[in-house]
Design brief:
single chain; 51 residues; three-stranded antiparallel sheet; elongated
Length: 51
């Protein structure tokens, strides 16, 4: 079983100074813009989807 991936960049400011947020499971905190966020995987697209 593989480990979960961590976000590399803040989705708000693009900085890399991210740390896990201990108050919320699965949340990350950015120490540059002082925001807390989480990333959620919804699912996969079906093969029949065209761009």
């Amino acid at each position: 079983m593989s480990e979960r991936s961590a976000p590399l960049y803040c989705p708000y400011c693009g900085d890399e100074d991210l740390r896990p947020n201990e108050a919320s499971h699965g949340a990350w905190e950015c120490h540059s813009c002082v925001r807390v966020f989480s990333v959620k995987f919804i699912g996969l697209l079906s093969k029949g989807v065209e761009k």
